Amino acid sequence: MTDVASLCVYCGSSDRVDQGHLAAAAELGRAAAERGIEIVFGGGRVGLMGVLADAALGAGGQVTGIIPEHLQAMEVGHNGVSRLEVVGSMHSRKMRMCELSDAFCVLPGGLGTLDETFEIVTWKQLGLHDKPIVVVNHQGFWDPLIELIDHQVAAGYVRSGYAQLFTVVDRVDQVFDTLAAAPAPTLSSDSRLM
């Protein structure tokens, strides 16, 4: 079983999205706070990121944002979070988010969310960490991604055991039971990622 004190959430920064996706982000933020689980996220105040952070904070939770200098300079950082760390680069952001988190959750998002998701899954495949990763396939949003990975398996580029790298759930209310049922991590990822 995995003991999760901090959950890294990857999600979109757009407000021009399905209201159901925004509601799912709020649900996840509240649920984490109610369980005493800190949210670690990309530090933005807009889109699903902002909704996630605000919901967790509103429910009394702790929220840590990690944002690169160039995004903070564009004034998209969420200055109301429990802690906002400004780092030098996107890569530093992803490394720091990994260091601070016991597990990862993926909500709907765009290219940045895909980048973060593929990097953390690849790091797990390479043995750089063994923390659980849960993809929330809200309203079938990630169906095309799952089909793409199945296509890569059929073409011989991805091993068929890729499903062991992450778990797909349909609803936010399945995230925490899924994390609790995951094997406890045994690797110390900090030194391997430097």
How much helix, percentage-wise, in residues? Answer: 40-55%
Approximately what portion of the residues adopt beta-strand conformation?
Answer: 15-25%
Structural class: alpha/beta
In angstroms, what separates the terminal alpha carbons?
27 Å
Strand count, sense and barrel status of the largest sheet are: 7 strands, parallel
The level 1 CATH classification is Alpha Beta
**Domain module tally:** 1
Q: Strand tally, please?
A: 7
Question: What CATH architecture would you give?
Answer: 3-Layer(aba) Sandwich
CATH fold annotation: Rossmann fold
So what's the overall shape? globular
Strand order of the largest sheet: 4-3-2-1-5-6-7
| Average pLDDT | 93
Can you put this structure into words, describing what you see?
- The chain is α/β, with parallel strands linked by helices.
- It has a single domain (about 5-180), classed as Rossmann fold.
- Helix content is about 45%, strand content about 15%.
- The chain is built from eight helices and seven strands.
- Helix 1 links the parallel strand 1 and strand 2 (about 40).
- Helix 1 (about 20-35) runs parallel beside helix 2.
- It starts with 5 loop residues before the first strand and ends with a helix.
- The model has no long low-confidence stretch (mean pLDDT about 95).
Write the layout of secondary structure elements.
Layout: E1 6-10, H1 19-34, E2 38-41, H2 47-58, E3 63-68, H3 69-73, E4 83-87, H4 90-100, E5 103-106, H5 111-125, E6 133-136, H6 143-154, E7 167-169, H7 175-181, H8 189-193
Parallel strand pairs: 1-2, 1-5, 2-3, 3-4, 5-6, 6-7
Helix pairs in contact: 1-2
